[in-house]
Structure formats: structure tokens, C-alpha cells
Amino acid sequence: MDLPSFKGISTEMEDVILNWLTFLLCGKAEKRKILLCYHSRDEGNIKRFLKSLHSIKAEVTCRNERTEKDADYINFSNGVVLMCLSKEYATSQEQQQDYQLASSRQNELALITFDPMIEQWQNIQNNLLIFDDVDRPSVFTLRRNQKGYEKYIYVSNHPSNATEAKKVCEILQKCGVKCSISNYRSISEINKEVLLRVTEEINIATNHLVILSRDYLGDEFCQFERTLIRNTGRRFHAYNINVNMSDINSLDMAWVLPYEEDKVVLETTLKHACQILRVRKEIVLISSTDKYRAERCREQLKHSKYKYNTVYFTSDLNKNQKCALIAECEIFVACFSKSYFEDTTCRKDMELAAALWKRILPVESNENSVSNRPEWLVRIVGHLRYPDSLEDYFEDSAGGNETNRRLEDWIRKKITIPCKSFMQTKLPPLNDDSTMTDAYGSVEVFAEGGLEHYIAQYVRLSTTTHLNVLLSLLMKQWGLRRPRLLISITGEGLEILNDPRKTRFFTSALENIVREKGVWFTTDGATSEISKVIGQVVEKENVNTRPTVIGIASWEFLKMNRALLVKNGFGRWPAQYNTREAATAPGDYHLNPFCTHFLLPEKSVENVNGSGYMVSTARLRADLEEYIRRGRFELNKPEEDDSVEVPSVLLVVEGDQYQSVSMIRRSLDAGRHVVVLKGTGGLADILASITEHQIRTQDSKLMEIVNHQNSRCLIFVDLNDETCEFDMVLIEVLLRDVMESNEKKLRLTLAFNSSEKAKEHVFAKNKPNLTDAFKNQLMIRAMKDGKKDFVRLLIKECVDINKFTRENYHKLFKADDIPEELKRQMGWDVEPTEENVIRFVVRILQIDVFMSYDLGDRNDPVRAMTFTNEGLIDTLKHRVSSDSQSDPYFYLLVWSILMMNLQELAKFFWQHCKEPLPSALIACGIYRTMRKKCQPANKLLADRLLESELEFQSLACGVLSQFYKDNPDETERMLTRKRPRWRNLTCLEIAYKMKVHSFMTHEACKIPINRVWYGQISPDNSALQLIISVFFLGLFPFVLKYVKSNSGKKDDANCITRIGKRIYNFYTAPIMRFSHTMASYMIFLAFFSYSLLTGFGDTITWVEILMYCWVFCLMLDEVRELLYGLSDSKKQLGEKYISERPYMIQIYFQDKWNYFDVTILCFFTIGAILDVLGYYETIEVGRVFLAISLIAFFMRILKTFSALEELGPKVWMIASMAKDLLYFVIILMLFVVSYAVAAYSIMYPRSELSFDLLLNVMRLGYWNLYGELLLEDIEVEEPDCSFNETVYNAGTLPRCAVKHRKIIGLVMMGIYLIFANVMLLNILIAMFTDTYQRIQEKRDHKWNYERYALVREFRRYPVIPMPLGVPLFLFYLVKGIYNKCKQCNTVRNHDKELMASLKVMDVYFSLEREMVYLYMKKRSEDAKESALTEETIAKVVAIQVEKKLSRLQSNPGDPVDMEELTETIIKQLTKKK
């Protein structure tokens, strides 16, 4: 940034600055002329840079592609050719001409850029200079690439302070720190050595020190040097030599330390300021002249949180030790006494601790009076009364917060209050007029209900407090964002609160801007009616991101203000303030719980020319708002510079005759617009009436407002006018306040989400000159807020979407903007950077969908080149060609999906994707995966994600329908075309991986699936022909029909060739591979059944050996499936993201049927091993395992049934019903077990525990369900049973049941059967019916998906089924192992192959984008028709109801016939149609 005082500098200093500039550009100070070459796209940045060049009187000639060659350009010599690098400039013809000119006629080449991508290529081998602040390009923010030191300190001083500077450097060098000082003596002696220091040493320094003196502040070169230091972005430190603090406060320094001649003190402060010493937090230093009090403090520390700290007494230390410990200690305890005040050593210790901003804890003695403190002590601790014991400090929880302690120190030094006030303070004056403030900290304000509470910062101050101090408090100490919009509201607003329509009218205009960052509201800070309305807007927002609402309320009239006073001399963190209790307290108003910050001024007297007058709160507020509006908070801002002005408006809601009138008059004096809301009563209605009817009134203040010279700034809005749009009026008013700034206009229109106003006021006439940094910032804000129309406008008018995405994509993933659910799914320990988010998307999709976009690719070979001057330009040219292949809209689509609440913006980006159809499918996949990973408690988010997923499914299906309707012949090619951007996957394969069932059910998808399924075999073949061909192998021409070629060429092949071709087509068709595999499998089941029925005895037969070999071949087939899965995963993830591939076992079990296959093979293997052992017991057990495996092998056929149209749904019904049955069995077993145990224990008590007992009990309850009542066992009598325990325990006869026990048991059985058989089983049937209907409705979706899975599997299935295909399998296995070893376990990089075909394929995708446009246009038209229909119905109904109600009001006794009213409405609607 340029210093404002440069416009009055001397001619000698202008010459020095020009020499410095040319030395910075090319290393030669004698080159005075500059030729600035750039592309017109950088016009906005160049104009700002030119303003900086002209401010130092540089001789500059400009040239771009629109400028014709003139004599100045052709004859340019002995100067600097300054080229502004950009992608557009590098590819222009002018660039080559400019480069040739720079290398001839004794010219020198220099390069600058405003592109962050180019900035990272700055290298010592090129002449590229970059700006520290691209938003404000200036010659003083240009930087070369310099290699800095680990610790290097630069000391800036005036020649008159050379002795002090050398003394500082000696101390630094003694500590082992490299440093340098100014060699400057006078402006006339500035030479190349000084220029070298200015351009290099200031830039590489890690710290900067300034020796401040009056000579330094008045010297031009020192001012220039300080500007360069500030523009490095580092706050510098300073030693003060007799300079007033008022002159220092504006310099924005980190530390301002008094210069000490004492070397020990100077060394201590120097080490601390430059962070040469590491502060240790375990030291407590006690300063006291009384040994007894010091020991007492030590004992109190042992019972506090400082009990583990080392305690030192200053009286026991020498000077060096004491200074070092003061710099290292955590707290400094000062025991005040009369002798302490008079002790010179204690004074120096306190001053040093205060200069180093140490935490000072004063301890008072009871006999000491506050008024006895000397002036030096008052400057440090003020006149506050402090406790006499350290225990009082430790009881206050605020003492542990370092940030709060630093804020307290600042407030106590900067903020004062008047000594005399309406409410007398107990503190004595700091001087004749003011004293240290006694109320500050944070306040927890409880709302009227008492349940809601918010924490706000507050401070009590004087109305004469300097505005610079106030802004420093708000922005630096309280950490508020730089204001971008200021809305001041004055008045009570009772009428608005009583009228809900007016409330909505007011709040709807503020809801949009409340979400904007940097918007400041100022109110009276009290709970007035209008404050409650503002609270309704504020409370809708997240508490963590609440808008800044500053309440400015008079301290004198505030209820319960004593609750905000300090405690033990230190602030409240927080103070408790209950508005319910304050309502009954004396005073005029209480705090507004919706404010985030409170300024509580107290009236004070300002002395002007010897006379004093009272400064009101209204004046302080008006002055503060005008100070903010004019941008006076900007450091060193020139008076004539309006570039940082903040748009502001005053809203008058009702208003009063005092504060509101004063605010209006002061706003008009400053030229600020005032919006008066007519219809809110009070002053607002009076002003509106006077202005509208030109009435004269006796109130001179009101007439002064009406007849003010800036009365055009007074705007009235009638809230009773239903056609008035308050938000539009408000934005128009604010736009008038920033007529000359397009940037502020765009910020305002963005805040109000009014793209129409932005187009009208900014883009309607000429293209505005906006910096890239601003455009990127605006675009990011619009995207994060989901303002689709504004994003569309920016892309259309000024934003290069390729460049924006490449340079700013990482900024979209800041941790504060990422949804919590996304953080959880990524992992709480994973930083949400661009790279990690992309890896997360690739991991959940298992496809590298970012293959070709070249964003954030740190392995780019172009970046690895040596960036010489020529290399920079060649690199930019390469970027131009790569941008043409990228798809930035897909990147933005993925970002908007991950944000989980930007569906409209996601649809907008999707429409502009280069391949919208697969992009929609990928969007469905991302939504589906995130929805599945949502926590069960987060059902609302899961439902929203499901809704978004279904909408993208609808978009994909709609585009496909449009394509199929307009281009049926191209649809199949579009679905089956391999897409390089998606790892050569087709749309069908992407839909399959993303599990988009509705897309695959579309009629257009069935055609290519059928074509792939049949291969070259004609679908016209009957089922009988296909079955016969399985046995004749398709060798005979009359068995099967084949698809005829459409090439039109005559087939001249001989008979043998045609037969060979037919054999190939027959065996490679997926349907034949499926048929042969199934035939082989049926033969296997036949042999297995035969061997299990006749074999598996003592000797092993050849059939058993055949079964063992056959099952081994099936195991090899599972290995083949695993290898295919690994290969697919490698190709789809690519080399870059191969680490995101899941484990091998996870890839294998992605197909759920593989769980079943593994179980079968394990059972068969166990049975075979047990059978081979040959023992009788093992053979019997093995036969059971083999029998179970046979059942499972038969059930495995269900997998193929799932792809058949009729049988598939039945299989899914069985699976779903099995899940239902599992849950039902849990409930059923409660009834079964409870009844069985109870009934058996009644009929057969005192039974002996055994395994047979468990079987009998469960047998009684379970088989009753199926009608087996076991009455013959229950009703049996002697002699067929026995009551003898020895007999029935021996198993000779069954046990008899006593008659009355039988009756009870039978009664229980009857009740049990009613519940179990009648109720529970019917519930199960109802569940099965519901499952059947649910699956039947989606049978097409599931069937087409499973059918494609079957086609996809058998398309690459071995031509020869197992076990005949074992030799072929082994051949491919050995070949694969050989290739694997040859490649040394590396992944083949398919990217180059895919990129080579990308340019050719882009031609075909234009038709796809055209179909998207047609579909969205049709969809928009349908939506408009639907909206018109609904609007027509609503109008007709409203008219008829209004007529009937008016009739009812005129004739109260005449009832309204609702049937007649309905018939009338229907007739009216029929006429409308």
C-alpha cells in the first residue's frame, strides 16, 4: 500500500524511489523507462498497479492486444519491458513481439503476474516478481524470490540514532542472531548498496526492529523504509526514544518498548520482543519489600493452580537473573506498600514487567490507600482497589484464560470513563477528567424465558473515547471481521411487533444479509420492540456464526448495570445478566440478548477551546458509524481515497424526538441515506406526513430535516403498501452510496441475492475492471451461500471457470465450511484438504473420476521443468491446451454434493458438465454412499440426501428419454461408448457400479444389454433352437440364426472361414457361455448326487475322484473371479489412487453370492477330508457335510435365476422374506419357550435335567405350531405309562401326567395355539404379503440390474466351462504372473492412453449436452405451466370465498352453502381451462 504522504515528497526522494523500483525489476538502477505489456483480461489489476507507479512519478508506457504499435513502442530502448504473465498473454502474438523487444536495444526483461498458479513458479532462475497482496497491487508489495535465514533481524533507524542501532546489533550478534542496520546517511548519498539492502535484506528478514525518534518519523527515506517493512506482512517491533504515544498508536507495531541505556534491561526486552528467549510457563516472580508478605504469597501459591510453579523473590536475585526471570515468568506478583512505592528497584521491575505485558497481580495491604499511589504506578495498574490476598484471584475462574488477560490489559490501558457521572463510581480519578474503566469482560444475557442465553463482549466507556481506540477494540481485540456493510437502526418499532405482516415485511429484507460475513448492525442495545424483531432474524442463524450486532446503550439508564462491574480489579468472564430480573429493576431499559457486543458509553464533557459541552450517546454512535462508513479504520488511509468506504444506511423505525432526530440530522449532514419506514408510527409517520403533504410544523428540528440540503438522501417506504418490496428499496439505497465502486455493488447485490440488480448496475453497459482476487472471492461466497443465479451471472460475465477452479478449488474445503457429517465420514483426524477430499470421493466410489482434470496434480511433469523466463511462457501455453480438456464444472458439482445442502447449485453445475449423463450417475453414487454412511440419529440429513439422489436419478433418466426420443439410433452408441474421463467405462457400467436401478430399467438400456447378451447370435432364435445348439455346438447352419452384417460389403469368404467365424461367434456369445456353464454345472450336480447316493464308502471310487477334481476346478474359477476384480480395481483407480483400493478379501466379497460360494466349498472340503481319513466316525460325519454342500450347490442355481424375468423376483422375495422371518422368529420363540417350559413343568414336575429333557420341552412347544399336538403322549394312561420315577427315568415306559395337570396343560395349549397359530402366523403372512408387493413393484428395476450383472459376468467368462477349461485358465494364470513379475509390482498407467482419445471423444459429447439443454428447457416449461395452473386455481378460490364472506358479513343470518360454493369454483375453473 502506498503511503499518503508520498504526494508531498521531495524531488530527491522521488529519484531514489525510481532507482529502487528499476533496481527491483531488473537489478539495474539506471533503467528509468518502463514498458508495461499485458493482456486486456488483467485490465482491472493493471489500473491499480499503474496508480501505484504514477504515484512515484514513474515513466510508464502501456501495451496490450488492443493497442496498435506506435513510435514509442517501436523505438523503446534502454528501459525495462515489464510483462504481466497470464494464460491469455502467453498465447497471444504480442507476447512474442514483446519478448523480442526485451532482448534487444539494451532493454531488460521483468515479469509480474496476478495469477496464483504462476506465482508458485517463482524461481531464482527467472525474473518473476509477485505481489504480497494481489487485491492491492503496488510497487511496494512486489517481491523477488530470496533465500532467507533461519533468524535474521533488520534494524531500521535514522542516522542520528546510529549509536542506539549499533548497540542493539551488538546484543543480537552476541546472542548468535544475524542482523543488519541502515547504511543510510542522507538522501543524496543513497547508492547501489543501499538499494540492494532495501530490495533484499528487508525481504529476507524474519524480524524487523525500528528505532523510533522524532527524526525518524519526520524523515522521508525512513518513512519509505517503514512502508516496505510493513508490506512484508509482518508486524514490526520498535524502541521508543522520546516519542509521544499518540504518534505511535497509528503505526500498528507488535511491541513498542522504551529504549533503555541499561544493557541488561535492553538485552532482556530485545530477546523477548524478537522471541530469542522461550517463555517458560512454570515461573512465578514475587516483588516485595516485606519478606513476611512475600512468604505469605508463596504459601498461598502452594494451594492454587500454580503449586507446581517455581517461585522466586526479586530481592534474592541479582540484576541479570531478575531481568531474565521477568521475561520468562508467567505471573508477576507485586506486594504494594509505602516502602514499595518509594523503592526505585521495585519501580524498574514493575515497569519492565508492564513493558513486556506480563500478568501483574497486585496485592494491597489493608492500611494502604488508593490515593497514595505514585504516578508511575497509576500508569501501570490504575486506581482500582485490589485484594489483599492471592486467594481472591484464584477464586475467579477468569484468571486462567490468556486471551482474556491480554484483553484486560489492553482495556485498562486504553479505555477510560468520566470521573463524575449520574451514577457515582467508587474509583478516584486517574486525572482531572477521567479514570480507568470499571466494567468490562463478557456477559451472559439470559432471554426473558430464561432458557436461551447468549454470551456477548461488553465494555463501559466514555462518550469522548477516541474513535480509533473504539475500532481497535472492535476489530483487533474483539476480533470482528472488517465491515463490508453497516446497517444502523433507530427507534422502538412497537407498530411492527403488533402487526405480523409488517414484521415479515421487515425481517424478509434482512434475512439474506444476516448470513453475510462482515455485515454490522448497530442498535440501541436495549430490549426495545425493534430489537426483538431483529432478534427474530438473528436467532434463525447458527449461534457460532451469528451476525455482528453492536448495541450502543447509555450506561446511566441501564438496569442492573452494577452486575457488570469488575471483580477483584479484573473483568467478568462472564457476568450473569438475567433480563427477567432486570425488568423489575430501576432504570429505563435492559440489555438485548441478541446483541453480540455492547458499547456502554457514559456522558462526558469535551473541552473545545477552553469551553466544555456534554457529548451524548447519540453523537458518539453517529460519529462511530460515520468513522466506519468513511473507512477511517484503515491504517494510513488517504483522506481522498474512497476505495475502502463501507456502504451504510440508517433505518428509522417509529423513532423519537430526541435520539432518532439527532441520528437523522447527523446522517444527512454526512450524506448518508436514511430510510424512514412509514406505517410504524412516531417520528417516521410524522416525517412522512410532512414531506408528502408539504406541511409546515413548529418543530424546528423536523423542518431542518425536511429542508436539509441532502434531503434527497431521505427515502420513505410505506409498509402499508403491499406492492412495495422493502429489500429492493434497501438495495437501491445502498447502491447509491457506492456509485463509483463496482466491487461494492457486487458485494451488496450478492448480500441481497439480487442478480438482476447486479446485471443492471454493473454489467449492463461496459465490462467492469475487476481483479481476479475479488472475482474469485465473490464467486466463492456466492457458491457457499448456494446463490445459483448469482453464480450463473458471474460465470457468464467475468469469471473464467477453468482458471477459477484450478486456482481456488482448495479454498472451498476450509475446515469451518465443511459439514460435520462429511468430517465424520472422512475421519475426524483427517484434515479436509482438497487432496484428502478427492481421495475420499475416489474411495467411496472406487473410481478415479478426476482422472483428466489436472487440478492439484503435484506430479505434473510440466511443473518439474526448470522455470526460466522462456520456460514460464511455454508452461502457460501447455496449460491452455490442458484446460480445453478439463471439466471444471464436474469438480464444482462434486463440491456442491459434498456440502450436502446445495442441491440447486449442484444441478446448475451438472447442466454444464462436458459429459452430463455419467456425471449425473456419479452424483447419484456419491449421494447414495454418503446416505448409507449417515448416522441413524441423523435421519433428516439422510432423507435430504435421498431426495437429492432421486432427483439426479430423475435427471439422468429424463436426459436418456430425451436422447432416445430424438436420436434413437445414437442412443445405443451413447450408452456403450467408452469414456476416457471415466476410466474407459461406459454409461451402463457406471450406472451398474453406482447402483442406479431406475436408469438401467429404461427401455433404451435394454437394447444394448440384449445385444451384448446375444452377441452375433440373432435374438429371433427360439428357446428350442438355443437348447439344441448347446448340444450341437452351433456348427450346423440350420440350428441357429446369426446377425447379418450391416456393412453392405459382399462376403467373399470361403466355406471354412464362414464355419470358423460361426464357431467363434457361437462360443464367444455370453448367452452360449452361460448355457454351456449351466449345462456343465447340471452334469456336476448329477455326478455329485450319484456319488453321494452310491459312493463315499470305505473305498474311494473314480466318481468321487472326479468330484474332488471338479470342485477344485470350481475353486480355480473363484480365483479367476478374484483376479478379474483386482484387475478392474487397478484400472478404475489408476496409479495415483491405487492406495485407496480395498483389501483383496473386500473386493472378492463385493458380490454377496461369494459368501455362499465360500461356505459351500468349505463344507465340501471338510466333508472330503473326513471321508478320505477312512474311519467310520469320520466317514459318517463327512457324509453329513457333503450332503449339506450338495443342498448348497443346488441352491447356488438361484444366482442364475435372479437374472430371469419371472424367477428373479421370486428369489429376491425369498431373500427378503428370510430377513423378515429372522426377526419374526425372535418374537415367536418367546411364546414357544415360555409355553413349553410352563406346560411341561406343570404336567411333569421335578424332572431330571438331561439333554432329552431339553428336546422334549422344545418338542412340545415347537411342533404344536404345525398341528402336531402330541395328545397321545399327554393323554396316555397306565399301563402304557408309569408314575414310578425309576421306571420312566430308565426309559422303560413314558411318564404319566396327573389328570388335573393334563387339563391345565391342555388349557394352556389352547391359549398358546390361539396366539401362536392364529395371531403370530397371520402377522407373518401379512409381513410376507407386504414384502411381496414391495418387490413386485420394483421387479423391473431389480431384474434389469441383476440381468446386466449376469451379462457383464459371462461376457468375460471362459469360453470353455470348467473342468474342461482348466488348461486355458492355467495358461492365462502363468502369463499373468509372468507379467506381474516383469512389471515389478507396479500399476500400469492408463492415463496417457485415455487422454489420447479424449480429444476425439469430446466431439460426440456435444450431442449429449444438447439433449440436456432440451430436457431442462422442457422441464422448465412444464414447471411454469404447473405454477400457472396452481396460481389460477388459487385466484378463483380466493375470489369466490371473498364473495361468499362479504355476503355473510352483509347478511349474518344467511348461511353459506358449501356445496354451492364448491360447484361455483368448479365452473369457474372449467371456464379458465
Structure, described:
It contains 62 helices and 29 strands. The strands form six sheets. Strands 23-18-19-24-22-21-20-27-28-29 form a ten-stranded mixed β-sheet, sandwiched between helices. A six-stranded mixed β-sheet has the order 2-1-3-4-5-6, sandwiched between helices. The chain has a five-stranded parallel β-sheet with strand order 8-7-9-10-11, sandwiched between helices. α23 (529-538) links the parallel β21 and β22. The longest helix has 60 residues, at 1391-1450. The radius of gyration is 43 Å and the shape is globular. Residues 1-7, 421-432, 635-643, 853-865 and 1384-1389 have low confidence and may be disordered.
Principal-axis shape equals globular
Beta-strand percentage range: 5-15%
Strand runs, count: 29
Low-confidence stretches: 1-7, 421-432, 635-643, 853-865, 1384-1389
Strand order of the largest sheet: 23-18-19-24-22-21-20-27-28-29
Computed over alpha carbons, the radius of gyration is: 43 Å
Q: From the helix content, strand content and strand pairing, which structural class follows?
A: alpha/beta
**Strand count, sense and closure of the main sheet?**
10 strands, mixed
Number of helices: 62
Average pLDDT confidence is 77
> Helical amount among residues, as a percent range?
40-55%
Give the N-to-C terminal Cα separation. Answer: 67 Å
Give a quick rundown of the structure.
This protein is an alpha/beta fold.
Quick tags:
disordered N terminus, 54% helix, 62 helices, 1473 residues, 6-stranded mixed sheet, 29 strands, alpha/beta, 10-stranded mixed sheet
